[in-house]
Amino acid sequence: AIERTLSIIKPDAVAKNVIGKIYDRFESAGLKVIASRMAHLSQAEAEQFYAVHAARPFFKDLVSFMISGPVMIQVLEGEGAIAKNRDLMGATDPKKADAGTIRADFADSIDANAVHGSDAPETAAVEVAFFFAGMNVFNS
Ligand code: CMP
């Protein structure tokens, strides 16, 4: 099915100047960028976005990393977009990510892991709505 997924290029990858290289991975795999914006998240925004992880021991570090610099946020659309984007990203921990994945090529650590991608249709819908009002999504 044609799906939409929420993708974030995290502060480490934005600082490395590889937004374009990561967009090329999406486009070469048949995913289309149908919404995008750069933002420097507030602590409240990052805490709300990652609320599902609030009880995890890594939550504080995750939030402080995500607000350490600007991020690039996009909606990707395409056939099986959610799983396809997760395949492109590779494992959460870049040390475990397959060769040729975004995290293997651009990430430094489990916190500075270059990208976020929605993990299921339900979370994708919530995450897309969190960052983009309907009028800012363009499926031409
Ligand atoms: P992300 O896909 O953005 O979702 C939550 C983030 O928490 C994850 O990527 C990692 O960057 C970060 N994180 C840090 N430690 C862990 C952990 N032990 N398990 C899962 N995610 C972690």
From TrEMBL:
InterPro entries linked to this entry: NDK-like_dom, NDK-like_dom_sf, Nucleoside_diP_kinase, Nucleoside_diP_kinase_AS
Pfam families membership: NDK
UniProt-recorded name of the protein: Nucleoside diphosphate kinase
Quaternary structure and partners: Homotetramer.
Keyword annotations of the record: ATP-binding, Cytoplasm, Kinase, Magnesium, Metal-binding, Nucleotide metabolism, Nucleotide-binding, Phosphoprotein, Transferase
Enzyme Commission identifier(s): 2.7.4.6
HAMAP family reported in the protein's UniProt record: NDP_kinase
GO cellular component: cytoplasm
NCBIfam families per the UniProt record, alphabetical: PRK00668.1
CDD domains the record matches: NDPk_I
Species: Polynucleobacter meluiroseus
Cofactor requirement: Mg(2+)
Enzyme class: transferase
Function: Major role in the synthesis of nucleoside triphosphates other than ATP. The ATP gamma phosphate is transferred to the NDP beta phosphate via a ping-pong mechanism, using a phosphorylated active-site intermediate.
Family affiliation: Belongs to the NDK family.
